[in-house]
C-alpha cells in the first residue's frame, strides 16, 4: 500500500508537470526533500519561482483534493521553500518573485483523468 | 457573486444592524472564511452552515467563500448568523432569489437544516420596529417572542428548505401578526396562608411588595425566613406593559426565554446561592452579559444566608441598589443594564443561629458573633428599608393548624395591587414606578405628614439619631403604609409602624 501511494504520487506529479509545462512553466527541480517536508514541484514562470503542491485523488468517495491542503500544510511548504532558497542563493538573486501554487487532480477509480485544477498564489493564513 | 443579507448584533441591550456579506469566488482556492470579529460560536457557523446546506440537498460549492459581518470592527457573538450566512450562500449561488426589500434574518441552524430556538429574538424584533424594517425571518420556536412586537411581519421558519421554497415562490410561509399576550397566573412555592404565625413579617413583606422596598430578615434557623421569601412572588403586583418589555429584553438577551415563550408577565424572583461570583451577580465578562441583579430587574433578588456571601460581592451591590442600573465597563466597551430590583435578604443573627433566642443557648464566642455581623457593612444595611427580626415559631401553634389559617396570598395581593395603583397615579409623569424609587426631591413633594406625625418624626429624629439616608427611607416606608391604608397624608400610626422597621445597629 505504501508503495502504491508513492507510485500514485509520482504519477500525479508527472501529470501536473506536463500540464504546467504546456502552460509555459519550466521545471527547476522536483521532490525537493528536507527533514521538515517536501515540495512536489519547483518550477519557473516569467522569472517567478513557483512552488507547487500536487494532490491526486482517485474517486470522489474520500473527499476533494482541495480539502487536503490545509493552512498547516501551506505553512510547512513555506518553511521548506525558505530552506530551498537558502540553498540556492543564485535563484534568489536572479528571479523576481516567488509564489505558491497547487494542482489538484481527480481521476476515477480506474485511473482515467476527470479533472485537473490549477490554483495560483495560495496564501496561508 | 456577492450578496448582502441583513441581520443584527447586540451590544448589551442595544442592537445594531449587521450586514452579512457573502462572496463566492469560483476561481480562488476553495475555502470558507468568516471575518468581522466573530467569536468561536460565529467561527463554528462554517461547519453548521456547510452541513445544514448539504443535508438540505444542496451541494456545497468548491469555491473561495468569504463572509464579512459588517461593521467589521464590532465584536459579534452567538449563533444567530447561521441563517443569514446560509441564505447569503444560497443567494450567491443563484439558488434563491433574495428579497429586494430590507428584511432581517436571524437564527441558529441545526445540522439537519432545521432552525433552533435562538436567544435575542425579542431584541431583534424591537430593532426591526425602530429601524422601520417590516419583515423578519426567525426560527419557528422563537417566533412567539417577536410576535408580541407591533408593526412587523414575523415569518416563522422551520427549515432551510421551507425558506428556499418561500423565496422561490413554491410555497409561501404565512406570517404571524401581532399577538396580544394574556396575563399569566402567578404560582409561588408557598401560599401565605400556609405560613403559621410570623404576622409581623407577613405584614412587612406586604408593605415591601406594595412599595418595592428592600427587606432584611434576621432570625434563628427554622423561623421561616426562606419560606416567607419564597411565598413573596405570590403577592407581587403584575408587571406593567413597560416593565414587561424591559424584563423580556434582558431575558431574551441572556437566553432565559424557553422555546415558544414570549413576553415575561410575572415579576422575576431570583434566588442566588451564596457562592455567586461578582460577575455572576453584577454582570460582566469580556463581552458584558447581564448578571443576576439585572435578571431580577423589576422583581425580587433573594439572597439567603447573607453573611456567607463574599464581602466584595455584597459591596458591589451598593451602587446598583442606589441607582437602579449598573454600568459595566470592559475593554470591549461599556454597557448599561437596568437593575431596579427589590432586595430580600435573610441571615442568622450569629454562626450558630440562636443569639437572642429565648429557648436555646447561643454557643458562639463574642468574637465569632462580631466577625459574623461585621460581614454586613453599615452602608449596605443602610440601603435596606425594612429590617425584621423574626422569633422562632412556637411548635404548639404548628399543630392544629387547621383552624389558625392566615390570610391567603390572593387577598394580600389585592391590597398590594391597590397600593401600587395609587403609586402609579402619583408617579404618572415621572420615570419611577414605586415609592422605593423616590429621590429626595420626590420624598419632600409626595410625603406630606399630619401634624401628629410631624411631631412624632421630630421626636424620632432626636432620639434615634437617624442618618440622612435612613430618614428618607423611613418616610418612603411610611408613604407605602399610608398607601396601603388609603390615607392621603402620612398619619402618626403609619409613621410609628415604619419606625419599627428601621435599621438598628446592634440587633440583639
Morphology of chain A: globular
Question: What's the arrangement of strands in the largest beta sheet of chain A?
Answer: 1-2-3-4-5
What's the number of helices of chain B? 21
Structural class of chain A: alpha+beta
Radius of gyration of chain B: 27 Å
**Low-confidence parts of chain B lasting 5 or more residues at pLDDT below 50?**
none
Predict the CATH topology of the largest domain in chain B: Rossmann fold
Note the gap between the termini of chain A: 33 Å
Question: Approximately what portion of the residues of chain B adopt beta-strand conformation?
Answer: 15-25%
CATH architecture of chain A: 3-Layer(aba) Sandwich
Instruction: Give the overall average pLDDT of chain A.
Output: 87
Assigned CATH class of chain A = Alpha Beta
Question: What distance separates the N and C termini of chain B?
Answer: 77 Å
Just give the CATH class of the largest domain in chain B.
Alpha Beta
Q: Name the helicity range of chain A.
A: 25-40%
Label the CATH architecture of the largest domain in chain B.
3-Layer(aba) Sandwich
Amino acid at each position: 500500500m505504501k508503495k502504491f501511494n508513492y507510485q500514485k504520487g509520482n504519477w500525479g506529479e508527472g501529470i501536473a508537470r506536463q500540464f504546467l509545462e504546456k502552460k509555459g512553466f519550466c521545471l527547476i527541480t522536483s521532490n525537493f526533500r528536507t527533514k521538515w517536508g517536501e515540495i512536489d514541484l519547483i518550477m519557473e514562470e516569467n522569472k517567478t519561482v513557483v512552488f507547487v503542491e500536487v494532490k491526486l485523488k482517485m474517486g470522489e468517495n474520500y473527499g476533494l483534493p482541495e480539502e487536503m491542503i490545509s493552512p498547516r500544510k501551506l505553512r510547512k511548504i513555506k518553511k521548506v521553500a525558505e530552506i530551498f532558497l537558502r540553498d540556492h542563493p543564485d535563484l534568489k538573486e536572479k528571479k523576481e518573485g516567488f509564489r505558491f501554487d497547487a494542482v489538484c487532480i481527480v481521476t476515477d477509480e480506474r485511473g482515467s483523468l476527470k479533472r485537473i485544477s490549477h490554483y495560483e498564489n495560495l496564501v496561508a493564513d | 457573486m456577492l450578496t448582502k443579507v441583513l441581520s443584527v448584533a447586540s451590544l448589551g441591550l442595544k442592537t445594531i444592524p449587521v450586514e452579512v456579506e457573502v462572496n463566492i469566488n469560483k476561481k480562488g482556492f476553495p475555502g470558507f472564511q468568516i471575518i468581522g470579529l466573530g467569536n468561536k460560536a460565529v467561527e463554528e457557523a462554517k461547519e453548521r452552515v456547510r452541513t445544514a446546506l448539504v443535508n438540505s440537498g444542496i451541494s456545497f460549492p468548491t469555491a473561495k467563500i468569504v463572509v464579512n459581518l459588517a461593521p467589521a470592527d464590532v465584536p459579534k457573538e452567538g449563533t444567530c448568523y447561521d441563517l443569514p450566512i446560509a441564505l447569503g450562500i444560497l443567494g450567491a449561488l443563484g439558488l434563491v432569489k433574495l428579497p429586494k426589500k430590507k428584511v432581517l434574518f436571524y437564527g441558529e441552524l441545526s445540522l439537519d437544516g432545521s432552525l433552533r430556538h435562538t436567544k435575542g429574538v425579542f431584541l431583534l424584533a424591537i430593532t426591526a420596529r425602530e429601524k422601520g424594517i417590516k419583515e423578519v425571518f426567525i426560527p419557528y420556536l422563537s417566533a412567539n417572542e417577536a410576535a408580541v412586537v407591533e408593526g412587523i411581519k414575523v415569518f416563522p421558519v422551520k427549515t432551510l428548505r421551507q425558506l428556499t421554497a418561500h423565496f422561490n415562490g413554491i410555497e409561501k410561509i404565512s406570517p404571524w401578526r401581532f399577538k396580544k399576550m394574556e396575563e399569566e397566573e402567578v404560582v409561588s412555592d408557598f401560599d401565605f396562608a400556609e405560613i403559621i404565625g410570623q404576622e409581623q413579617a407577613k405584614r412587612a413583606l406586604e408593605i415591601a411588595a406594595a412599595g418595592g422596598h428592600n427587606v432584611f430578615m434576621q432570625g434563628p434557623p427554622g423561623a421561616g425566613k426562606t419560606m416567607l421569601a419564597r411565598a413573596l412572588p405570590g403577592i407581587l403586583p403584575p408587571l406593567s406593559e413597560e416593565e414587561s418589555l424591559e424584563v423580556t429584553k434582558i431575558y431574551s438577551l441572556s437566553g432565559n426565554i424557553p422555546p415558544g415563550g414570549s413576553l415575561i408577565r410575572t415579576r422575576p424572583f431570583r434566588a442566588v446561592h451564596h457562592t455567586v461570583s461578582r460577575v455572576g451577580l453584577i454582570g460582566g465578562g469580556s463581552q458584558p452579559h447581564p448578571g443576576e441583579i439585572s435578571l431580577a430587574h423589576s422583581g425580587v433578588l433573594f439572597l439567603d444566608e447573607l453573611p456567607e456571601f463574599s464581602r466584595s460581592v455584597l459591596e458591589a451591590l451598593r451602587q446598583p441598589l442606589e441607582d437602579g442600573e449598573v454600568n459595566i465597563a470592559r475593554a470591549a466597551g461599556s454597557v448599561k443594564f437596568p437593575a431596579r430590583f427589590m432586595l430580600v435578604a435573610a441571615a442568622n443573627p450569629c454562626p450558630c443561629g440562636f443569639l437572642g433566642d429565648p429557648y436555646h443557648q447561643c454557643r458562639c464566642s463574642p468574637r465569632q458573633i462580631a466577625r459574623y455581623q461585621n460581614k454586613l457593612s453599615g452602608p449596605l444595611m443602610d440601603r435596606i428599608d425594612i429590617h425584621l427580626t423574626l422569633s422562632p415559631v412556637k411548635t404548639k401553634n404548628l399543630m392544629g393548624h387547621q383552624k389558625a389559617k392566615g390570610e391567603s396570598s390572593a387577598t394580600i395581593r389585592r391590597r398590594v395591587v391597590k397600593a401600587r395603583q395609587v403609586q402609579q397615579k402619583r408617579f404618572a409623569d415621572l420615570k419611577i414606578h414605586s415609592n422605593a424609587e423616590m429621590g429626595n426631591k420626590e420624598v419632600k413633594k409626595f410625603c406630606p405628614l399630619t401634624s401628629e406625625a410631624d411631631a412624632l418624626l421630630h421626636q424620632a429624629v432626636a432620639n434615634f439619631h437617624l442618618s440622612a439616608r435612613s430618614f428618607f427611607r423611613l418616610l418612603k416606608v411610611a408613604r407605602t403604609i399610608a398607601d396601603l391604608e388609603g390615607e392621603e397624608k402620612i398619619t402618626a400610626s403609619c409613621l410609628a409602624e415604619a419606625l419599627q422597621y428601621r435599621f438598628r445597629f446592634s440587633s440583639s
